[in-house]
Amino acid sequence: MPPSPYVSRINQIDAQQLDHEIYEIFRTQSKQITKDVRPGIIDKWQPEIDVFIKFLIWFYSLRKGDATFGQQLLNLKYNGINQRKAIIHFLLANLPRYIQERVIDSQYIIISRDKKLKNYFEWTANIIRIIELVNLILFLHRGTQPNLIERLLGISSQSSITNRPRNIGYSYMTRELLWHGLIELFTIGLPMVNFYYIKQKWNQLWMKTRGERKIVNIRPLLDLMTNCPHCYQRPILPRHAGCRHIFCYYCLQAYFTATDTFPCPECGTNLHSCNMLSV
User: Fold this and answer.
1) What pLDDT score was predicted for residue 215?
2) Torsion over CA of 173, 174, 180 and 183, rounded to 10 degrees?
3) Which H or E element spans position 151?
4) What are residue 148's phi and psi, to 5 degrees?
5) Rg (the chain; Cα; Å)
6) Is the pLDDT of residue 107 over 70?
7) What is the band of 53 on the pLDDT scale with cuts at 50, 70, 90?
8) What are the CB-based long-range contacts (under 8 Å, 24+) for 117-126?
9) Three-state DSSP class for residue 137
10) CA dihedral 191, 197, 201, 203 (to 10 degrees)
């Protein structure tokens, strides 16, 4: 059975993205190798280094075969590619970028003639971007040749393997649907649960089982050993509300946001929001 000529749009875009990622990996490694070199020496020749890296990637992929590394990872290849088109593909893909970095983005242009040349290159680059946008629209409509160079050379991507029936694991899909449903349920439902109210009721029930504590109102005293009864840390912006225990402002305010009154977790004294005072 021959390979299928149809290739999905996402696979073609992913192949280009993989090619770019492979180039970025090599470029990052080259920067790591030369990081100990005196600053300014390597940066001056960075455009040439980038072209050399792209040449190595092209030489060992498209020059010796009919697919880039990104296409090989996705089982794709070019239909109608040859040695001449491969060379033209490399020149069209890298020469404009090199000229842009050396001429358009250069900071050493002083002569007015060079400035005019720079303006011509900028206009040409803008026109090419517009043509690439039109080509992208055509690709989204037709599903072939996402790159302008591919359209100019008359090459397109196709699958390098024969079509095989795809086994769909419905049990896996069901687990994914259930998992995403639970995530949405927890994301929406958990913020609606009043945990402070639940904790308050639990403390009341626990105190009833242990017996009521004798409530003794003592003036709160803040010292080096004082800890918040809620978070058991040094009180931040210390507050109290009718018992000798001192809370963090945010811990106490969180309780009063949930309910106007609640028993102190330590002594059981009923604290009221109207009695909240600073220490």
Assistant:
1) 47
2) -150
3) helix 148-153
4) -65, -35
5) 35
6) no
7) very high
8) 125/96, 125/100
9) helix
10) 100
Listed in order, strand segments (DSSP E) in the chain are 76-79, 156-159, 239-240, 261-263, 270-272, 277-278
Mean pLDDT of 251-270: 80
Per-residue pLDDT at 271 exceeds 70 = yes
- 227-246 burial: b if 16+ Cβ within 10 Å, else e: ebbbeeeebeebbbbbbebb
Which of left, alpha, beta for 226 (phi over 0: left; psi -120 to 50: alpha)?
Answer: beta
Alpha-carbon distance 59 to 91, whole Å? 12
Q: Which of 238, 273, 240, 241 is nearest to 259 (CA)?
A: 273
Report which residue type is found at 220.
P
Report residue 204 as tokens. 């009341």
What residues are paired with 126 via a beta bridge?
A: none
Nearest residue to 240 via CA among 205, 213, 269:
269
Whole-structure pTM value? 0.54
